[in-house]
Amino acid sequence: MKAKNLLVSQKHKILLGGILLGTSLIYLQSLGFDFVNWDDDYYVINNLQVSNPTLSNLLLFFTEGNTANYHPITMLSLALNYALGGENAFGYHLFNTVFHLFNIGLLYYWTQKMWPNQTYLPLFVAGIFGLHPMHVESVAWISSRKDVLFFFFYFLGLIQYFQYQKEQQKKHLIFTLLFFILSGLSKPTAVIFPMHLLLIDYLQNRPFNGKIILEKIPFFMVSILIGLATIWVQTDAGAVNVDAYSFVERIQLASYAVNLYVVKFFAPIHLSSFYPYPTRPFNLLVSISPLISIAVDGVLVWKWKQNRNVVFGFLFFLVSIALLVQLVTVGSTIISERYTYLAYVGLSIGVYFVLENILSKVVNFNSTLFRNGLTICLIIITLIAYNRTKVWENGETLWSDAIIKFPEVAGSWGGRGVFYRLEKEYPKALNDFNQAIQLNPNEPMFYSNRGNIYFDLGKDVQALQDYEICLQLEPDNQNALANKGAILGKQGKYDQAISLITQAMETDPNFHTAYVNRAIIYSQMNQRVKAKKDFQTALKFQPFKHEVWNALAIEHQYLSEFDSSLIALDQAIELSPEGVYFLNRGISLRLLKDQPGANLDFDQAQSLGVTVNPGYYQPVQ
To answer: Which residues of 381-396 are buried (b: 16+ CB within 10 A; e: fewer)?
Structure first.
């Protein structure tokens, strides 16, 4: 018997190794991917608290919301990534991939401990979890860091709870609570943790008594605190809209969402980063979704109500997804693939035991036939997941895929338009924003972004028209205010320009572009001290803008603050060694009577294609 168990154990290690290898093959390609212009800019690139991790900034993760969420541990991990690798996306993708692999191991271990007599359940659940295409979004998307991180702490907590049930030692319950807190501070979805503990009590047939209630009180208290913090943050950010649909419509949408999650579990096709809400009036499938849900649940209750494993699995799924379906409208998607990262664990367990009950009559679960069938299924979803991962290579691939799947969604056209503008592919960007505006002519962001393209192209008349339309739709749009002000500044209308830009700052005191635009106008007005101050403020918000360091250095030069200009130019050159920066530093060195140093910079500027006045090689008289 021992020899047989050892053989089974060795086979399991090989199969688990195969799952880990398959998962690695799926996601190692992401190590060469870039950031995408969907929240990655808000989470990392343009996030001052992440890019400038001072103690005060790190503390803000715990005292304020970030990107309409409350997840300070996740933000701390992104700040660590930034400290180690800056804006190189490699480290962020590596972190997500490694933690996903950790999570597979934790899930396998927990499942094995919970069902020690189930030979293939741990492999089935771990395989589905690691390889399922619906989980690609949670791993390949940098901004979904919160998923892999909260799951990691979540299952460390569940493992500790298993140890508590086994040994009845309070230290394990304390560790369970600690890991739950860390999970909740990584992603608020973890507030359902106490409900999963109660489900485990049900599975283990623990008597429901005062002891169970008392030991769960601290967990429910933590859930309430994290939930209140999240509601406050999301409501303040405008992410929650309780009036978008009637109560009946919300029931229909919630049922439709749950049904869609189940369908995608079995048939992960037509996947998308964005699933729009059904349009009114709802089609028949959406309208009768509550009836479909009731019918399916009825069959499950009637057929398997005595099977605690089946009941546990499906309730685990429903509890996991309950806060994520659209009973209260949050965001603009009916479902999100990342929401299945935890939920599919329960669905996998429930499905396994249903299949065991049905198939055990015709096939032995320990047979080669079953193992081969399971292997083929895992290979199929591995191939689908591998191809799905490619979508997350960059903003173009992401938004192009979303456009193919749902071309009627204006936001996807706008997202790709932003990517093309950042890549300076202006004709493509204009085409996408024209399409976005045609689909949704009442979205101010589209006019603001199209105005930015015209602004970049020097087409001030068209840019001004778009900014004015944007401001008609959204009078306090800070981008339109700041850039309209910049255009008026170019036209010499300085007072109007400064008034508009100052209004943009009042709307968003941390708006980097507004300070830069006002500084440029002050510079044009020869108000050097004010220009210097605004450039300095802009750099507090985005200290890695090399062109702003160079602009600040020029203001220092006008004010004869040559030592300060050298400091600014050193920063600019460190960030981006461009020829004009060496030229400007050479000028400062020359004026400081360091002609040899100046000449070295002038030589470097010329080697980089910048023309240098021959007179600069002569000392200042």
So the answer is: bbebbbebbebbbbbb
- Percent of the chain as helix, strand, coil, to the nearest 5: 75, 0, 25
Q: Tokens 């790190």 identify what position?
A: 58
Give the closest residue to 463 by CA, choosing from 442, 485, 478, 441.
Answer: 485
As a whole number of angstroms, the distance between CA 357 and CA 347 comes to: 15
User: 116 has which bridge partners?
Assistant: none
Which pLDDT score, from 0 to 100, does residue 56 have? 81
Task: Find out whether 51 and 82 touch, Cβ atoms under 8 Å.
Answer: yes
Nearest alpha carbon to residue 347 among 89, 143, 97, 135: 135
Q: Are 43 and 35 in contact (CB under 8 A)?
A: no
Structure tokens at 386: 């591998």
Taking the C-alpha atoms of residue 4 and residue 83, their distance in angstroms, rounded to an integer, is 50
Q: Torsions phi, psi of 327, nearest 5? A: -65, -40
pTM (global) more than 0.85: yes
> Can you read off the two tokens belonging to residue 295?
């019918």
The answer, yes or no, to whether the previous bond of 268 is cis (omega within 30 of 0) is: no
Classified as helix, coil or strand, 188 is helix
Find out whether 510 and 479 touch, Cβ atoms under 8 Å.
no
The counts of H helices and E strands in the chain are 31, 2
Give the model confidence (pLDDT) of 116-158 as tens digits. 988 889 999 999 999 999 999 999 999 999 999 999 999 999 9
Q: Which two tokens stand for residue 315?
A: 């309730």
Q: How far out from the chain centre does Cα 52 lie?
A: 19
Cβ-contact 568, 550 below 8 angstroms: yes
Q: Which of 190, 177, 178, 179 is nearest to 229 (CA)?
A: 190
Q: What's residue 331's pLDDT?
A: 58
C-alpha distances (whole Å) from 435 to each of 59, 98, 431, 432, 438 are 42, 39, 6, 5, 5
Task: Report the b/e string of 321-332 with b at 16+ CB within 10 A.
Answer: bebbbbbebbee
